[in-house]
Structures are given as C-alpha cells and as structure tokens.
Amino acid sequence: MTLWSRLRSWLRANLRRARMDSEMDAELRFHLEAYAEDLMRKGVSRQQALRRARLEFGGVDKTKEECREACGVRFIETLMRDLHYSMRALRKSPGFTTVAVLTLALGIGANTTIFSAVDALMLRPLPFPASNELVRIYSIQQGMFNTFGNPDGPSAPDVRDFAERSHSFQSIVVYDTWRKNVNFGDAAGEPEQMSVGLVPAGYFEVLGIRPIVGRLFTEEENQEGKNYVAAISGWLWRSRYADDPLILGRKIRINGEPYTIVAVMPDVIPAWVEPGRHSQIWTPFAFSDVWSESSRGGRGWATLARLRPGVSLEQAQADLSVIAAALAAEHPVDEGVGAAVKRLADTRVGALRPMLFLLIGAVSLILLIACVNLANLLLARNSARQRELAVRAALGAGRGGLVRQLLVETLVLSLVGGAVGLVLARIGLASLARMHTEELPQLTSVGIDWRVLAFTFVVSLVTSLLFGLTPAFVGSRLNLVDALKQGGRSATSGPSSQRVRNILVVTEMAMSLILLVGATLLVRSIIRLERQSLGIRQDHLLRGRIYLPPVRYAAAGTITRFCDDFAARVRALPGVINATVTTVYPPNNGWIQMLDIPGHPVTRIQDIPSAQFGVADAHFLAALEIPLIRGRDFAASDSVTSPPVALISQEFNRRYFPTEDPIGRKIHIGPPQFLRIPRGENTSDDTDVTIVGVVGDFKNAGLAHSPDPQITVLYAQHPLVNYGFKDIVIRTAADPNPLVPEIRRQLHELDSDVPFADVHTIDELVQAETGSQRFTTLLLSSFAAAGLALAVVGIYGVISFLVTRRKQELSVRVALGASRANVLWLVLKQGLEMAAIGAAIGLAGAWSAQRLMGRLLFDVSPVDPLTFAGAAAFLLAVAAIASAIPGVRVLQIDPAQMLRQD
Amino acid sequence: MTKQIDLLQGTLDMLILKAVSLGPLHGYGILLRIQQISKDRLEIQQGSLYPALYRLEHQGWIASEWGESENRRKAKYYRLTTAGKRRFQAEAEKWNRMTDVIAGILRTTPEEV
C-alpha cells in the first residue's frame, strides 16, 4: 500500500502544522464562500447566504480537528494520553510493576556487565596497529606448555635462531620484567619496588608504539654498560613529574644506579602483555650472556613477534616446528623441546578463560529466566485484565486503540526496566573493577558496551511485546459477552494460557537449578581449596620482599650478612616469635631445579630428576613450623666453610629414595653431566649437598596441586644462587600488620635504599591464589540467588493465581469438612509438581555442563551427587514455601464468608 | 425535491472516489458533483466531507494540489491516484456484490424459504 504517502502526509502534517492549518482555513473558507455565492445567485442576500452556508456546513472547528486527526496529527496527543494512562495503570499495580522492572533490570544489567567485561577481556582487538599480526612464541616439552624453570618461554639463543631461519616473522623480540628498586630522587625519597620492563630496541617497534616525547632505545643500548637509559609511561610522567616538558634527560635511580630518561611512552600497553606486574618503566634488554650458546637451556623469556603480512598462524607454526626440530637435533639441551605460536590476543585471559565462559553461560541463563519471568508476569496481568479490556472494547475502543494502549504500557515498562538495568550495569562494572584489579587490571577501564545493552534491551522488549500484546489480539477476537460473563466471576484465562504459564515456571525452575548446582559446586570447591592444610602453621605469618641490587651487593657474602642481620633484628622485635629469610614458603615456590641423583642415571632430558628448590636460613623450619620427620634441622654450625647440607620433603624422599634411607646421601644440585650446561644465569647451582633431614610436605606448587618434591638449602652455603631477591617470613604473636612500619625501619637502618615490598600475610597470599575462583564463585552465587528469586516469584505468581481461581472450590471443600492440611496439600501439590519437573530438567542440564565445570573445580566432582541432591531439595523446599503462602492465605478466610462473596 | 436519504456509513469515501474519478475537483465541487449525480437524493453533511478527504489523501487514494477555480479564486483540487483507482474498483465491486445479495434476500417471498 502507500506507507510512504502516509508517512509523508503525517510528516508534513506534523512538521508544518502551521502551514497546514492555514491551508485548511483557506480551503474551508473557499467552500463556504463558493456555497454562499451559489445561494446568492439564487437570490439570497449576501449576509443571509453566508449565515446559511456556515450553518449547513456544521462546526468548522470540529471539522478542522477531525481533518487533523485524519492525517495523524493527533498522534502525539494520543500518545501522551496513552502514556498518562499507562503510568496510572502501572502505578495502580505496584507489585507487578516493581517485580517486572526488577526482572528486566536484572536481565539487562547482569548481561551488560558480564558481556562488557568479556568483550574488554577477550574479544576487543588489541590497541596496536595490525594487532592480529602480533603473536607470542612458547617453548613446549612433550607437547606440554611447561619447561624447567619458568614455564612457557623459549631461550634467547633459540629465539635468535627462530628469527634467523624462519620466513614467517617480520621480527621477534625477547624481553622480561623484573622487580627492581626504583628511586625517583624526588621529595618523597622513599625507594619503591616496581616492575621494570627489560626490553630490546625492537620491543616498541613490534608493538607499533611511538614515544610521546623522546626516542626509542638504540641497538647499541642493548649492550651492558651502555644501557643506562629509561623510558617511562605517560602515567608516570603525569603522576610523578606533572607532565614536566623538560622530562628528557632527568635521572631515575634503579637498583642504585642512575638511568637517564630518554622517552615517554603512551599508556597503551595492557598490563598482561608484560609478565608479572604492569611496567611503568622500561630499560634496555642488556644481558651479556643470554645470547651465548651456554644459555640455550635458559628458557622462560617472554617473547613478542609480528607475523609478516599475509602469513597465517598455521604457516608460522609449521615454519617454527621445522626449525625447532632442527635445533633439537643440533643441541642436546633442546632435545624434546618444540615451539608453539599463539596470537597475542588469545593469551590475554589465560587461566580465566573457562571461568569467563562459565559466567557467559550463567548470565545467558539469567537473561532467559528474566524473559520467562516477564512473560509469565505479563500473561498473569493480562489475563486478569481481560475483563477490563472487554469492557473498554464494549464501550467503543477500537482494536487499534487497545493495541496501542498495551504497546505504550509495555514500552514504558521496558524503558524503565532498561534504565534501572543500565544503573545496575554501571554498579556491576564498578564493583568488578574493584574486585579483581590484581589479576585483570583491564577491568578497571571497562565501560558499558552499548551494543550488549541494546541487544539485551531488544530481547526483553521483544519478549514483553510478544506476551504483552497477545491479549489485545486474542481479546479483540474474543466473544465480548463471554469475556464479561467469565470475567465477572474471577479473572480467568483459558486452559491453554495456563499451560503456557506452567511451562514457563518449569523452565525457570530448571534454569535456576542449573545455576544453583554450579554455584554450590564452586563454593564447595573453594572451601576445599582454602581449608586444606598448607603443611605449615598458617596463622600470624607475614611475608615481605627485598631486593639487594648487585651494584652494592656484588659478593654473595655481603648478601648473606645483610639477610642474617635483617632477620636477627626482626627476631629481636617485641611481638615477633621467629623470622626467616627464605625463598621457600607456601603456597607457591616456583623455582624448579634439575638434579643429579646418584643411583638415578638418566640419558634423556625428560627423565632428569627435578624438584622445587630454594634457599633459606637456619630458622626456616622453626619459623614456618614445618615438622621435622627424620634426621636433623639446619644448624648454626652449617656455615660457608662447612659441607653444604639440604632438607628434603617426604614427597622428595618417596620419589627419589623410595627404598633407601636418604639421610647422609649426596646429591648434585644441577643437571647431570651429559647435559653439560655451563654455569649460566639463575638456572644452575652446581654444588653437591648432603641430605641431613626429611621434613613434612607443604604446598609448593599452588593450592590446586599436591606438593611437589622439595629440596631446601642454606643460602650461606650456595654463593652461586645467593641472589639479591630474598623474602622474609615472620611469625608473630598477634596480628602482624602493626609491626610492618617497625620492620621497615629496621630494614632502612641497614640500607635506606632497599624497599620493603609486597608485604602480605600468608593468608592473603592464599586468598590471592584463589582470587579468580572467589570472583567467579561470588558472581555465580549472586546469579544463582537472582535466578532463584525470579523463579520463586514465578511459581508464587502462578500458584496464587490458581488459588484465586479455585478459591470457591477450596472453600466448599473446607465447608464440607476437608481438613485444612488436605486442602493445603492440594495447592502445594501443584507447585511441587512444577518444581519437580523443573528440577529434573535442571539436573539433566547441570549434568551436561560437567565438562565446563570440571575444569574449574578442585577436589569436587562436577556431578557431585550430594550437591545435586542438595540443590534439588533446596529448590523444592523454596518452591513449596512459595506455593504454601497463597494456600495458607486462602485458608485463613472464613469459608462461609467466601461462599457468600460471589 | 424528492426525499433525501442519509448516507450509509462508509459509503461517503466511495462516493468521493467516484466523484474525483471523473476529473479533478475541489471540495465544494465534489459535494456538488455527488448531489448532481444522485439527483439530490443524498444528504451529505457538508462538514463531514473534509475529514473524509483528508483521510483519503492520508491513505494515498487521492492527491491534492492548489489551483484556480472557475471564478478565479485559489482552491484545492483533488484527483484520484492510481492506487485510488484500484481501491475504488475493489470497493465498488464489493458494494455491488453486497447490494445484490441483500436485494436478493429482501426479494425473497415466504414461499421460497
């Protein structure tokens, strides 16, 4: 038809209303005058003719008004009237309005929050030019992403060979991030431990970043001795130097040495790109020895590479695999070592990936439940309004008018719900950012994703239109008299619409049970994770970190002396029970060492014994309260000059001395002879030690794993691995936190330029370890609670409706002598039936989600029968209560009175 | 002057379409034309003509433009659009069918039932 002409005339009418009015005036005036002239021609006087013309025409203003309406000019006025009426109708049923708005808001808010976060974390393109060319290269062993020492990264010589031999990459860079003592030399003066990116000249070029001011590092500055230049972040420039335009050339002291600022870099590098924590300072990658052949086994470097344009990930992988195989043949230390390439964008969430998928699933369920609930609410409301609609139709309201009215009402409801949902999403994102800054710093800058908001809003709008408008169509075809008669008794709806509502409630029940099961499993898992024994006495234990830079602590002896002095001063503090300088403590050790154990001859690299390794002082066992099982503890007599001794854990004993007594046995710290890795950086100790004691196992490979074999030695006896990175673990009598300033003062009395950093209790470290699980658990639990609340509202609504309809029947039953319990059971049964069917479907759903859940659970089966049964029982109980309330309410009314009512 | 009959609901539109199908007319002209064709047997409330015209124009059956009247005055002229032509034919057919049926029913004698 002529939608276009209608629209045009409507637009013309509304936009040029004044002109239309004047045209209308002219047209009607013409009519009147023409008629009058005709009358005058018949001999009527002019005055008389005009009067008659006007009279016979009828009301001019009324005609004009009707003309305007005919063109749709009245649209706005009608809309306002409908709007007004809708508001009144919604205000008149505050219960329905509140629940509907909250339902909408919850669905929209939760989805907008989670999808905005997921988009920022996983989906959004990286903030670099041609970012899909950016990849990372990993080292793999036997197909696993794990190597000796640090997991994942290749060694520098391997990367150099990859770069030289492959044709897939524009460039590959090796870099790292180190904790360093930084002193800005400004008023505050206090040294800080910061993570400093050690990056080659090409690092920023690979990422495609230009400095805001200054220049990139040069090739030459990658040489040790010429590397005293630094680039700082825009954030640091702003916060530390107030955007000082003369920033270039100023000096920062890093580890006691002055570095000249040569560049300010834009704040575009996300924290996760740099291993460890977010770097605000970068200095050149100047390690003289990492490129030498002796460092080929020194893996664990972070890499960044840019593919040549047009080269696919698969091509690059195939290319690298060939080169890695060649390297493995050429170098014994590369035997069994492969290389894998991953897109940089895919490395950003790491271990959180399955959790994010779980959360996506959960919020999708919430959206579904919300829509179902909304549908249910609207159906209930409209079936109760059928009488009202019938009356209005009887009074002459056209079908169009009724539809328009319901449409406006639904729109108002959806808009209000959407607005509240938007507020919820803002709150949600703000609290996400607060909850999870450590692991996912990207979250702090997540904004609302308007596409998601629009999507969820449209979904809920369609739902409300679908279920909100049906009565208008069904109702208008309804026999008016029937509707009025039926409605006169009680607002009923046909059996088919009741069936739809029952199905909706069953769906809600099923979906909320899935959420309930998931949340319960996660809660149980996290409790198991956190409640397990670490193998030490966990309470009142404080950990702090220090770093003694080589510039002032070059000799191992000076480090030993400093650490011993520091620990002795701390032990002397009132309130301190014991203190140990150590690199070993739960829940993570993270320093894996290859060993050569006599009686364990190996020829293949993958068979080399390895264990968690670390250095400590003689107070280690006593301070952590690790039980000594056999042999003796470290002693004060174990000194630099005496033979080196070691403590091994029970797991070490089991694994490497299953049948013999380990006490007195000698082992070599370092790889066996055939590997012949020359002494390099932090990988090798190369000393023989005598085992003097076996100690209890403690968590050293993370909370989720059983303890690895552990071997601990004295740093005083191992100058080669007596590095400046040391931690102090302090056992206190009461809350350790108030002691921190005094401990820091003691440290600064020894050296005012060494920061006391990363101070946390062991409890806090454990919680940090479970942070992402807590995060997921908290979110999933709140979703489960929300889903359950919606489902309860749903079942309550349906049962109250049914009870209202059966009021009379129930009263008759009571009047005829049925016991109240029996009658109550009749009501309850209907609710329980729906809940039971829903629960059965929900359990099947939870069962099918076991693969996703399994990856997130610790020591709990994803189909744990206790959880399944408990969650189902809980759901049934809640459903029973929700159905009992309307039942009890109807029984409280006097049956005689009830029967008289109608 | 014979007795005038009131317009059946919904028939005014059809009459207007018929009137303008014979050539462009202004509102007053349409009124005259209908009266002329009906030999003054139909009573049309003059004021009710215009809302009908605006509605038909809004629906796209007729279109309007300003022109000059016989007595050299500015007047708004309506003409039938192509869509209006189709619409008029359909309406007229429906009307004829209905009147046939109704007339047939009314003609029926008791014996025929």
Classify the oligomer.
heterodimer
**Beta strands of chain B, count:** 5
Q: C-alpha Rg of chain B, in Å?
A: 17 Å
Quantity of strands of chain A, as a count: 21
Class by alpha and beta content of chain B: alpha+beta
Largest sheet: number of strands, sense, barrel closure of chain B: 3 strands, antiparallel
Largest sheet of chain A: 6 strands, mixed, barrel
Mean pLDDT of chain A: 84
| Low-pLDDT regions of chain B | none
Largest interface (CB within 8 Å) is between: A-B, 32 and 25 residues
**Class of secondary structure makeup of chain A:** alpha+beta
Read across the widest sheet of chain B, the strand sequence of neighbours is 2-5-4
What share of the residues of chain B lie within helices? 40-55%
Coarse shape of chain B: elongated
Estimate the strand proportion of chain A: 5-15%
Terminal-residue CA separation of chain B? 38 Å
Shape of chain A: elongated
Strand composition percent of chain B? 15-25%
Please explain how this structure is put together.
The complex is a heterodimer of chains A (902) and B (113). Chain A is built from 25 helices and 21 strands. Chain A is α+β, with helices and mostly antiparallel strands. Chain B is an alpha+beta fold. A three-stranded antiparallel beta sheet of chain B has the order 2-5-4. In chain B, strand 4 and strand 5 (74-80) form a beta hairpin. Chain A binds chain B through residues 1-2, 5-6, 9-10, 13, 23-24, 26-28, 30-31, 33-35, 37, 56-60, 62-63, 66-72, and chain B through 26-28, 31, 45-48, 50-55, 57-60, 69, 71, 73-76, 83.
Layout of strands and helices, then pairs:
The complex is a heterodimer of chains A (902) and B (113).
Chain A: H1 3-15, H2 17-41, H3 46-57, H4 60-70, H5 75-92, H6 94-123, E1 134-141, H7 156-165, E2 169-183, E3 192-199, H8 202-207, E4 213-214, E5 229-233, H9 234-241, E6 251-254, E7 257-265, E8 281-284, E9 302-307, H10 313-330, E10 337-343, H11 353-394, H12 399-435, H13 450-477, H14 480-489, H15 495-531, E11 541-547, H16 556-571, E12 576-582, E13 592-596, E14 610-616, H17 620-624, E15 628-631, E16 645-649, H18 650-656, E17 666-669, E18 687-695, E19 710-714, E20 725-732, H19 740-750, E21 757-761, H20 762-769, H21 771-815, H22 820-848, H23 850-854, H24 865-892, H25 895-901
Parallel strand pairs in A: 3-8, 5-7, 14-19, 16-18
Antiparallel strand pairs in A: 1-9, 1-10, 2-3, 2-6, 2-9, 4-7, 5-8, 6-7, 11-20, 11-21, 12-20, 13-14, 13-17, 15-18, 16-19, 17-18
Chain B: E1 5-6, H1 11-21, E2 25-26, H2 27-37, E3 42-43, H3 46-59, E4 62-68, E5 74-80, H4 82-107
Parallel strand pairs in B: 1-3
Antiparallel strand pairs in B: 2-5, 4-5
